[in-house]
Write a structure and sequence with these properties.
two-stranded antiparallel ribbon, two-stranded antiparallel sheet, 184 residues, binds zinc ion, mainly alpha, 6% strand
């Protein structure tokens, strides 16, 4: 079998739109361009690495009342959205909603292809709260708030709604800007 014309070392097995020849799988992954390759059967969207997104630490959040109130707005909106859809929001959906908000605020991508309607509507719901409650807050700060919320949610979640239960108990659903309901 012929060698891949890009690296000239591995075997070319994939018909490539970019070079009109058979290329190897590693060059396929490293050279692909969304605008040329999106129709190709080998194409996969690049995976976003959320662990590298800037985030506040939990102690930074706890020691700063402004940051804490921003975080409460976002988590209070997650609680309110959960109630609106009949308590059907699992941690995995909540985390995905936060990730798509990170896409918007940090990566400048708005791509909801393949996401469930629950997640798509949730992104709109929470983004509405961010636009209202955090409208005067620097975008870098919003990203770091979203980053710490994702971190905490992933740490607390096990299989279902462990994270959501905690924020329902300690944050409570947002009713309007600065107003949340807490039932103890
Ligand atoms: Zn190659």
């Amino acid at each position: 079998m012929a060698k891949c014309p890009i690296c000239n070392s591995r075997q070319g097995k994939r018909k490539c739109f970019l070079v009109d020849d058979l290329i190897c799988s590693r060059c396929c992954v490293s050279k692909r361009k969304a605008e040329v390759c999106s129709e190709c059967g080998f194409y996969q969207k690049p995976k976003i690495k959320y662990n590298n997104v800037p985030a506040y630490s939990t102690s930074e959040m706890e020691s700063n009342m402004d940051l804490e109130s921003y975080g409460n707005s976002v988590e209070g909106a997650l609680c309110a959205y959960d109630i609106e859809i009949g308590n059907m929001l699992n941690d995995s959906d909540a985390i995905r909603i936060i990730e798509l908000l990170i896409n918007i605020h940090h990566f400048n991508v708005q791509d909801t292809e393949g996401e469930s309607q629950t997640i798509i509507n949730g992104v709109g719901f929470i983004e509405g709260t961010i636009k209202e409650d955090l409208k005067d807050v620097n975008n870098d700060v919003i990203v770091k708030i979203l980053g710490v919320i994702r971190f905490v949610a992933k740490r607390r979640s096990k299989t279902g709604k462990e994270y959501m239960r905690i924020i329902h108990q300690y944050v409570g659903p947002r009713i309007s800007s600065g107003i949340r309901i807490l039932k103890r």
